[in-house]
Amino acid sequence: MTSSPSTILRKAFPVPAQPAPRGRLAAVAPWLVAACIVGYALVAGGYPATVVGFALIYAVFVSGLNIFMGLTAQVSFGQSAFAAIGGYASAILTTQHEWGWLPAMVAGLAAALAAALAIGYPTLRLKGHYLSMATLAIGLIVHEIAVEWESVTLGYLGISGVPPIDIAGYEVSSDRAVLIMLSACVVATALAVARIRSSRLGRAFAGIAGSEDAARALGINVARYKLVSFLLAAAFASLSGSLFVHVVGYVSPEVFSLHMVILSFTMLYVGGIGTVAGPVIGALVVSVLPETFRSFRDYQDLAYGAALILLLIYAPRGLAGLFAALDTRRKP
Questions:
Q1: Domain hosting residue 124, numbered range
Q2: Measured between alpha carbons, how far is 199 from 131 in angstroms, rounded to an integer?
Q3: Which residue stretches of 67-174 are H helix?
Q4: Which residues of the chain have pLDDT under 70?
Q5: What is this structure's pTM?
Protein backbone atom coordinates (compact mmCIF):
# COMPACT_ATOMS: atom_id res chain seq x y z
CA MET A 1 0.00 0.00 0.00
CA THR A 2 1.42 3.43 -1.00
CA SER A 3 2.17 5.86 1.82
CA SER A 4 0.50 9.25 1.80
CA PRO A 5 2.59 12.38 1.06
CA SER A 6 2.27 13.52 4.68
CA THR A 7 3.65 10.16 5.91
CA ILE A 8 6.59 10.38 3.50
CA LEU A 9 7.25 13.96 4.60
CA ARG A 10 7.13 12.96 8.28
CA LYS A 11 9.63 10.15 7.69
CA ALA A 12 11.96 12.33 5.62
CA PHE A 13 11.94 15.29 8.02
CA PRO A 14 10.91 13.96 11.44
CA VAL A 15 10.24 16.14 14.43
CA PRO A 16 13.26 15.94 16.78
CA ALA A 17 12.84 13.46 19.62
CA GLN A 18 12.48 14.59 23.21
CA PRO A 19 15.94 15.52 24.52
CA ALA A 20 17.68 13.54 27.27
CA PRO A 21 18.22 15.25 30.65
CA ARG A 22 21.63 16.57 29.56
CA GLY A 23 20.09 17.70 26.27
CA ARG A 24 17.41 19.55 28.19
CA LEU A 25 20.12 21.43 30.08
CA ALA A 26 21.68 22.53 26.78
CA ALA A 27 18.25 23.63 25.52
CA VAL A 28 17.42 25.57 28.68
CA ALA A 29 20.85 27.22 29.15
CA PRO A 30 20.33 30.01 26.55
CA TRP A 31 16.99 30.89 28.12
CA LEU A 32 18.57 31.03 31.58
CA VAL A 33 21.22 33.45 30.28
CA ALA A 34 18.52 35.57 28.62
CA ALA A 35 16.43 35.53 31.82
CA CYS A 36 19.44 36.68 33.87
CA ILE A 37 20.09 39.62 31.51
CA VAL A 38 16.44 40.67 31.52
CA GLY A 39 16.19 40.15 35.29
CA TYR A 40 19.21 42.38 35.92
CA ALA A 41 17.74 45.11 33.70
CA LEU A 42 14.40 44.79 35.47
CA VAL A 43 16.02 45.28 38.88
CA ALA A 44 18.38 48.06 37.76
CA GLY A 45 15.85 50.00 35.66
CA GLY A 46 16.90 53.19 33.89
CA TYR A 47 19.48 52.89 31.11
CA PRO A 48 20.05 49.10 31.38
CA ALA A 49 16.29 48.57 31.07
CA THR A 50 16.23 50.77 27.94
CA VAL A 51 19.11 48.87 26.29
CA VAL A 52 17.56 45.48 27.04
CA GLY A 53 14.15 46.74 25.91
CA PHE A 54 15.54 47.63 22.48
CA ALA A 55 17.21 44.21 22.38
CA LEU A 56 13.87 42.49 23.00
CA ILE A 57 12.27 44.45 20.14
CA TYR A 58 15.09 43.25 17.91
CA ALA A 59 14.51 39.71 19.21
CA VAL A 60 10.99 39.77 17.73
CA PHE A 61 12.35 41.09 14.43
CA VAL A 62 15.19 38.53 14.25
CA SER A 63 12.85 35.66 15.18
CA GLY A 64 10.83 36.43 12.05
CA LEU A 65 14.00 36.65 9.98
CA ASN A 66 15.03 33.28 11.43
CA ILE A 67 11.91 31.63 10.01
CA PHE A 68 12.87 32.70 6.49
CA MET A 69 16.64 32.27 6.77
CA GLY A 70 17.07 29.64 9.47
CA LEU A 71 14.13 27.30 8.90
CA THR A 72 13.68 27.75 5.14
CA ALA A 73 17.33 28.55 4.22
CA GLN A 74 16.46 31.60 2.12
CA VAL A 75 18.16 35.00 2.24
CA SER A 76 16.47 38.38 2.71
CA PHE A 77 18.11 41.77 3.11
CA GLY A 78 14.80 43.61 2.95
CA GLN A 79 12.99 42.72 6.19
CA SER A 80 13.54 46.26 7.46
CA ALA A 81 11.00 47.37 4.83
CA PHE A 82 8.19 45.54 6.61
CA ALA A 83 9.28 46.87 9.98
CA ALA A 84 9.10 50.36 8.47
CA ILE A 85 5.59 49.71 7.12
CA GLY A 86 4.35 48.53 10.51
CA GLY A 87 6.12 51.32 12.40
CA TYR A 88 4.98 54.15 10.16
CA ALA A 89 1.42 52.80 10.00
CA SER A 90 1.21 52.82 13.81
CA ALA A 91 2.79 56.27 14.05
CA ILE A 92 0.66 57.91 11.34
CA LEU A 93 -2.67 56.38 12.37
CA THR A 94 -2.26 57.15 16.09
CA THR A 95 -0.90 60.70 15.74
CA GLN A 96 -2.71 62.01 12.67
CA HIS A 97 -5.98 60.03 12.70
CA GLU A 98 -6.38 59.33 16.44
CA TRP A 99 -6.57 55.56 16.13
CA GLY A 100 -5.94 53.32 19.09
CA TRP A 101 -2.60 51.51 19.26
CA LEU A 102 -4.08 48.04 18.64
CA PRO A 103 -6.12 48.90 15.49
CA ALA A 104 -3.13 50.84 14.17
CA MET A 105 -0.83 47.88 14.80
CA VAL A 106 -3.26 45.50 13.07
CA ALA A 107 -3.55 47.88 10.11
CA GLY A 108 0.25 48.04 9.86
CA LEU A 109 0.41 44.25 10.00
CA ALA A 110 -2.17 43.96 7.21
CA ALA A 111 -0.28 46.51 5.09
CA ALA A 112 3.03 44.69 5.62
CA LEU A 113 1.47 41.34 4.67
CA ALA A 114 -0.11 42.86 1.55
CA ALA A 115 3.24 44.35 0.54
CA ALA A 116 5.05 41.06 1.27
CA LEU A 117 2.51 39.17 -0.85
CA ALA A 118 2.83 41.59 -3.76
CA ILE A 119 6.63 41.59 -3.55
CA GLY A 120 7.21 37.97 -2.63
CA TYR A 121 5.08 36.32 -5.31
CA PRO A 122 7.38 37.33 -8.21
CA THR A 123 10.60 37.80 -6.21
CA LEU A 124 10.74 34.40 -4.52
CA ARG A 125 11.02 32.68 -7.89
CA LEU A 126 14.63 33.91 -7.84
CA LYS A 127 17.41 31.95 -6.14
CA GLY A 128 20.74 32.59 -4.48
CA HIS A 129 22.33 36.01 -4.82
CA TYR A 130 19.59 37.14 -7.24
CA LEU A 131 17.05 36.79 -4.41
CA SER A 132 19.41 38.56 -2.02
CA MET A 133 19.83 41.56 -4.32
CA ALA A 134 16.10 41.75 -5.01
CA THR A 135 15.23 41.84 -1.30
CA LEU A 136 17.98 44.41 -0.66
CA ALA A 137 16.39 46.65 -3.30
CA ILE A 138 13.02 46.34 -1.54
CA GLY A 139 14.49 47.63 1.73
CA LEU A 140 16.24 50.53 0.00
CA ILE A 141 13.09 51.51 -1.91
CA VAL A 142 10.92 51.62 1.22
CA HIS A 143 13.60 53.62 3.06
CA GLU A 144 13.70 56.12 0.19
CA ILE A 145 9.90 56.43 0.23
CA ALA A 146 10.02 57.19 3.96
CA VAL A 147 12.57 59.94 3.26
CA GLU A 148 10.92 61.55 0.24
CA TRP A 149 7.19 61.28 1.09
CA GLU A 150 7.41 64.20 3.48
CA SER A 151 3.71 65.06 3.38
CA VAL A 152 2.98 61.78 5.18
CA THR A 153 6.20 60.62 6.89
CA LEU A 154 7.70 64.12 7.52
CA GLY A 155 10.99 62.85 6.06
CA TYR A 156 14.09 63.06 8.24
CA LEU A 157 12.19 65.24 10.72
CA GLY A 158 10.29 62.13 11.77
CA ILE A 159 6.98 61.67 13.56
CA SER A 160 6.96 62.36 17.29
CA GLY A 161 4.31 62.12 19.97
CA VAL A 162 3.38 58.50 19.26
CA PRO A 163 1.31 57.37 22.28
CA PRO A 164 2.52 54.43 24.40
CA ILE A 165 0.66 51.15 24.57
CA ASP A 166 -2.10 51.03 27.17
CA ILE A 167 -3.54 47.79 28.50
CA ALA A 168 -6.89 47.85 30.34
CA GLY A 169 -6.51 51.56 30.94
CA TYR A 170 -2.95 51.23 32.26
CA GLU A 171 -0.37 53.12 30.23
CA VAL A 172 2.80 51.08 29.67
CA SER A 173 5.34 53.88 29.85
CA SER A 174 7.74 53.21 32.74
CA ASP A 175 11.02 51.37 32.06
CA ARG A 176 10.08 48.28 34.04
CA ALA A 177 6.53 48.09 32.67
CA VAL A 178 7.84 48.32 29.10
CA LEU A 179 10.41 45.62 29.84
CA ILE A 180 7.76 43.26 31.23
CA MET A 181 5.49 43.85 28.22
CA LEU A 182 8.33 43.28 25.72
CA SER A 183 9.44 40.13 27.58
CA ALA A 184 5.90 38.77 27.23
CA CYS A 185 5.98 39.58 23.49
CA VAL A 186 9.31 37.76 23.08
CA VAL A 187 8.05 34.68 24.96
CA ALA A 188 4.92 34.60 22.76
CA THR A 189 7.09 34.97 19.64
CA ALA A 190 9.43 32.16 20.73
CA LEU A 191 6.49 29.85 21.44
CA ALA A 192 5.02 30.62 18.02
CA VAL A 193 8.34 29.92 16.27
CA ALA A 194 8.77 26.66 18.23
CA ARG A 195 5.26 25.60 17.26
CA ILE A 196 5.89 26.42 13.60
CA ARG A 197 9.20 24.52 13.64
CA SER A 198 7.63 21.33 15.02
CA SER A 199 4.52 21.44 12.81
CA ARG A 200 3.90 20.08 9.33
CA LEU A 201 4.62 23.58 8.04
CA GLY A 202 8.02 23.48 9.74
CA ARG A 203 8.79 20.10 8.18
CA ALA A 204 7.99 21.56 4.77
CA PHE A 205 10.36 24.45 5.49
CA ALA A 206 13.03 21.92 6.51
CA GLY A 207 12.50 20.03 3.27
CA ILE A 208 12.99 23.20 1.23
CA ALA A 209 16.08 24.07 3.28
CA GLY A 210 17.56 20.64 2.56
CA SER A 211 16.88 20.55 -1.16
CA GLU A 212 14.18 22.28 -3.17
CA ASP A 213 14.25 19.54 -5.83
CA ALA A 214 13.90 16.77 -3.24
CA ALA A 215 11.08 18.68 -1.52
CA ARG A 216 9.33 19.04 -4.87
CA ALA A 217 9.67 15.28 -5.44
CA LEU A 218 7.95 14.68 -2.07
CA GLY A 219 4.98 16.75 -3.18
CA ILE A 220 5.83 20.01 -1.40
CA ASN A 221 4.69 23.14 -3.23
CA VAL A 222 8.03 24.95 -2.90
CA ALA A 223 6.85 28.31 -4.24
CA ARG A 224 3.85 28.42 -1.91
CA TYR A 225 5.78 27.44 1.23
CA LYS A 226 8.57 29.93 0.49
CA LEU A 227 5.91 32.62 0.19
CA VAL A 228 4.33 31.54 3.50
CA SER A 229 7.75 31.72 5.18
CA PHE A 230 8.29 35.19 3.72
CA LEU A 231 4.88 36.35 4.96
CA LEU A 232 5.55 35.05 8.48
CA ALA A 233 8.88 36.89 8.59
CA ALA A 234 7.18 40.07 7.35
CA ALA A 235 4.50 39.76 10.04
CA PHE A 236 7.04 39.58 12.88
CA ALA A 237 9.01 42.46 11.32
CA SER A 238 5.87 44.61 11.21
CA LEU A 239 5.06 43.84 14.85
CA SER A 240 8.59 44.78 15.92
CA GLY A 241 8.36 48.07 14.01
CA SER A 242 5.06 48.93 15.72
CA LEU A 243 6.45 48.01 19.14
CA PHE A 244 9.45 50.26 18.54
CA VAL A 245 7.45 53.40 17.72
CA HIS A 246 5.09 52.94 20.68
CA VAL A 247 7.96 52.33 23.10
CA VAL A 248 10.13 55.20 21.85
CA GLY A 249 7.29 57.55 20.86
CA TYR A 250 9.13 58.60 17.70
CA VAL A 251 9.99 57.24 14.26
CA SER A 252 12.25 58.41 11.43
CA PRO A 253 13.79 56.76 8.32
CA GLU A 254 17.15 56.20 10.07
CA VAL A 255 15.53 53.61 12.36
CA PHE A 256 14.85 51.26 9.42
CA SER A 257 18.04 51.82 7.45
CA LEU A 258 20.57 49.27 6.18
CA HIS A 259 22.17 49.35 9.65
CA MET A 260 19.11 47.52 10.99
CA VAL A 261 19.65 44.73 8.45
CA ILE A 262 23.35 44.36 9.30
CA LEU A 263 22.64 44.36 13.04
CA SER A 264 19.87 41.77 12.71
CA PHE A 265 22.14 39.46 10.68
CA THR A 266 24.81 39.77 13.38
CA MET A 267 22.29 38.91 16.08
CA LEU A 268 20.99 35.93 14.13
CA TYR A 269 24.39 34.36 13.50
CA VAL A 270 25.80 35.13 16.95
CA GLY A 271 22.74 33.65 18.64
CA GLY A 272 22.39 30.61 16.39
CA ILE A 273 20.56 30.51 13.07
CA GLY A 274 17.79 27.92 12.84
CA THR A 275 17.27 27.69 16.61
CA VAL A 276 14.38 29.08 18.63
CA ALA A 277 16.54 30.61 21.37
CA GLY A 278 19.21 31.94 18.99
CA PRO A 279 17.49 35.19 17.95
CA VAL A 280 16.67 36.04 21.59
CA ILE A 281 20.11 35.39 23.09
CA GLY A 282 21.79 36.88 20.01
CA ALA A 283 19.80 40.12 20.25
CA LEU A 284 20.54 40.46 23.96
CA VAL A 285 24.27 39.71 23.70
CA VAL A 286 24.90 41.94 20.66
CA SER A 287 23.00 44.80 22.32
CA VAL A 288 24.71 44.43 25.71
CA LEU A 289 28.28 43.88 24.45
CA PRO A 290 28.91 47.52 23.39
CA GLU A 291 27.82 48.69 26.85
CA THR A 292 30.13 46.12 28.45
CA PHE A 293 33.11 47.51 26.55
CA ARG A 294 32.18 51.17 27.07
CA SER A 295 34.91 51.48 29.74
CA PHE A 296 37.53 50.87 27.04
CA ARG A 297 36.67 54.31 25.57
CA ASP A 298 38.84 54.74 22.47
CA TYR A 299 39.18 50.97 22.06
CA GLN A 300 35.47 50.22 22.53
CA ASP A 301 34.77 49.38 18.87
CA LEU A 302 37.96 47.31 18.64
CA ALA A 303 37.06 45.28 21.73
CA TYR A 304 33.47 44.83 20.54
CA GLY A 305 34.62 43.65 17.09
CA ALA A 306 37.20 41.28 18.59
CA ALA A 307 34.55 39.77 20.89
CA LEU A 308 32.21 39.15 17.95
CA ILE A 309 35.01 37.55 15.90
CA LEU A 310 35.93 35.25 18.78
CA LEU A 311 32.29 34.26 19.19
CA LEU A 312 31.98 33.38 15.52
CA ILE A 313 35.29 31.44 15.54
CA TYR A 314 34.67 29.37 18.66
CA ALA A 315 30.89 29.18 18.30
CA PRO A 316 30.23 28.88 14.55
CA ARG A 317 26.73 27.56 15.25
CA GLY A 318 26.01 30.51 17.54
CA LEU A 319 25.64 30.71 21.28
CA ALA A 320 22.64 28.35 21.27
CA GLY A 321 24.74 25.78 19.41
CA LEU A 322 27.69 26.36 21.74
CA PHE A 323 25.69 25.21 24.77
CA ALA A 324 24.70 22.04 22.91
CA ALA A 325 28.32 21.41 21.85
CA LEU A 326 29.60 21.82 25.41
CA ASP A 327 26.90 19.48 26.68
CA THR A 328 27.86 16.86 24.06
CA ARG A 329 31.52 16.98 25.16
CA ARG A 330 30.51 16.15 28.74
CA LYS A 331 28.85 12.91 27.65
CA PRO A 332 30.99 9.74 27.92
A1: 44-255
A2: 26
A3: 79-96, 101-123, 128-148, 150-153
A4: 1-26, 295-298, 300, 323-332
A5: 0.87
